[in-house]
Amino acid sequence: MYLSRFLSIHALWVTVSSVMQPYLLVWGHYDVCKSLIYTEEGKVWDYTACQPESTDMTKYLKVKLDPPDITCGDPPESFCAMGNPYMCNNECDASTPELAHPPELMFDFEGRHPSTFWQSATWKEYPKPLQVNITLSWSKTIELTDNIVITFESGRPDQMILEKSLDYGRTWQPYQYYATDCLHAFHMDPKSVKDLSQHTVLEIICTEEYSTGYSTNSKIIHFEIKDRFAFFAGPRLRNMASLYGQLDTTKKLRDFFTVTDLRIRLLRPAVGEVFVDELHLARYFYAISDIKVRGRCKCNLHATSCLYDNSKLTCECEHNTTGPDCGKCKKNYQGRPWSPGSYLPIPKGTANTCIPSISSIGTNVCDNELLHCQNGGTCQNNVRCACPDAYTGILCEKLRCEEAGSCGSDSGQGAPPRGSPALLLLTALLGTASPLVF
What we know:
By secondary structure, this protein is α+β, with helices and mostly antiparallel strands. The protein contains 8 helices and 24 strands. Helix content is about 15%, strand content about 25%. The strands form 8 sheets. Strands 3, 4, 8, 10, 11, 12, 14 and 16 form an 8-stranded mixed sheet that branches. Helix 1 packs antiparallel against helix 8.
């Protein structure tokens, strides 16, 4: 009897878990900016925080090499095989498509066989350093959502720096250093992301994990975005609510994952041993077959889509905002200062919609379409919003305690809902089951 009751409860839990799963998955998606809801006053817009879906951002970038003539093939030259550094009869020739290795092959879909790749000139001018800057530009602020992955078809560099810019390439900051010997190359002790924590997640480190010479199984270099997310969201990123809460309240953390440009500074090719073999300089070069950058347009939680037109990305702004990043209020909607949307409270966030300016409203303060009363306020004769006790403002858009400077953790304002449809269903189901007796 006890077993049958246990199995009944287990079956109920499986059922509820399946119901809860879709509900849990919507946490942090923010895939709609507004929806029509029905109230006693009729249909009104319910505004929520929103953002574009994560996508492959390499489709929208421009690439620049410095020095500009560093790509191999002009004039044609020979280089050594990837797997055998002493077999040096391979040829790079920019005038022959089958032998050319232009920079766009870092972002293609491997249409030719074998794999396609960009390649630099060889280190024929040794001991002058062989250094290359690869700059990836979007002309748009983007938010990184996954690891940056660089796949080399040469040996991975002995020394490399990944840098970021937040001001379209005017200034640069290091993201991560890579070296076979961090102390010698950059005067830094070697670390990995696993050595970091929530409190040190913004630390710039030098890692030796991805710097080796020729090896067929050692082609990839990572900049670990997801491992840093995991400090807040858990090892499988299941607690995105926690991560979004941190991003919402910590500007430095949010800015850390935000870029307008990335720069890969290749400082020293893979040597594989202590000394450079001056008799076989054609074995030293850089070759990259793939760069993966996954992210989304930064729209300040005011848009769900980003248009790519005339080689330019622009957010399709909602919430009466405008600008490439939805970074300001539209004309006649400066009734309060512009503010980015907020991820909180989970799961819908706060839209922080721009509201009409006093001068543009006239006598029509509210209606049931665009100028709706917020936070449970009701529109009275289109001339005023009657607000709940906790709210104030033209459209009931402000917490009354904010004006008094008394909002606190015990005020009860802005707290996420305590229940969910799935939990209510679980309660109902368990309420119908007989109690277990042990």
